[in-house]
């Protein structure tokens, strides 16, 4: 089993601290170093020193996905150590430094019927930290099934999208250990984010369909310990998988129930019914949750969407 050391790094986000992981087998590897804040830099450096190393000795930085609580310090660690940054190619454009989160998703937000004033609230409540940035010359891209060698073992790269199109997990088959990023968390269900399909930007990414397929994949694997992106490690992870699957079944049933009761509704109207108290950027997260479930329901023939004046209205498939 490869030596994995968790470093709990503070973030300014409601999700709380993020888990960075240091692997002290060569090449010395740091996974998800955390957000770009002075406090996070200090805690990360102290955590590495506790294991007898310096950040300048890191030889490889690996990212599970681009979200700033995980990726924000990747470029800083690279500048200190010269370590290349490893990630899935789908995540690289979002770490260019000029990626516009809102405009990238605006066509889908408008199609969901979100009013302009709500879009302004979401935009005004965006992340105040520096945009995550990784210089393309310092990047190594990873694909599903690749092997990452260490002294004394290796990790298999698992592409498990849903929370992000290029979300990666890292699997130590010999030790039965999975670094799950935000794919599997002990205390919350990851948000299936609304964003374009990297292979066809005019189409929504089928985030929840991908996520549910990934749950089936890891449920069949031989995993003895899961180290997540947030929270404590899990020995018995299958109940968490089952709870997540149950959550999504219940959410699908809840949405079809609302459509039966109310007739046709937009994704935004449904999100308001489910989450009436959301503020600021959380409006987008609520919309993402609803739209992802509507996409699954439509793919299964349980609901139908019809576009009227640029906005999609949904109804149950049995309704005329």
Automatic annotation (TrEMBL):
SUPFAM superfamilies: Metallo-hydrolase/oxidoreductase (SSF56281). It comes from the Bacteria. Residues 17-230 form the Metallo-beta-lactamase domain. InterPro entries: Metallo-B-lactamas (IPR001279), RibonucZ/Hydroxyglut_hydro (IPR036866), Sec-metab_biosynth-thioest (IPR050662), WH-like_DNA-bd_sf (IPR036388). Pfam families: Lactamase_B. This is Metallo-beta-lactamase domain-containing protein. It comes from Desulfotomaculum copahuensis.
């Amino acid at each position: 089993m490869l030596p994995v050391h968790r470093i709990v790094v503070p973030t300014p986000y409601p999700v709380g601290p993020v888990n960075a992981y240091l692997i002290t087998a060569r090449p010395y590897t740091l996974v998800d170093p955390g957000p770009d804040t002075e406090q996070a830099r200090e805690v990360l450096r102290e955590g590495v020193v506790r294991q007898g190393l310096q950040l300048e000795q890191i030889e490889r930085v690996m990212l599970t996905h681009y979200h700033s609580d995980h990726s924000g310090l990747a470029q800083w660690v690279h500048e200190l150590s010269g370590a290349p940054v490893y990630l899935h190619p789908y995540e690289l454009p979002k770490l260019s430094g000029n990626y516009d989160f809102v405009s990238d998703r605006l066509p889908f937000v408008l199609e969901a019927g979100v009013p302009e004033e709500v879009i302004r609230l979401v935009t005004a409540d965006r992340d105040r930290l520096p945009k995550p940035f990784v210089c393309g010359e310092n990047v190594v891209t990873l694909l599903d099934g690749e092997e990452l060698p260490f002294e004394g073992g290796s990790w298999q790269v698992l592409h498990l999208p849903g929370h992000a199109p290029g979300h990666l997990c890292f699997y130590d088959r010999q030790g039965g250990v999975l670094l799950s990023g935000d794919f599997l968390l002990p205390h919350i269900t990851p948000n299936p984010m609304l964003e374009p399909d990297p292979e066809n930007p005019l189409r929504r990414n089928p985030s929840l369909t991908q996520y549910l397929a990934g749950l089936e994949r890891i449920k069949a694997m031989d995993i003895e310990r899961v180290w997540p992106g947030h929270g404590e490690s899990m020995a018995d992870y299958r109940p968490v998988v089952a709870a997540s699957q149950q959550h999504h079944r219940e959410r699908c049933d809840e949405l079809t129930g609302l459509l039966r009761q109310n007739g046709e509704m937009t994704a935004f109207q449904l999100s308001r019914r489910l989450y009436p108290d959301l503020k600021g950027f959380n409006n987008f997260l609520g919309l993402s949750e609803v739209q992802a479930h509507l996409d699954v329901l439509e793919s299964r023939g349980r609901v139908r969407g019809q576009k009227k004046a640029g906005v999609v209205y949904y109804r149950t498939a049995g309704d005329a």
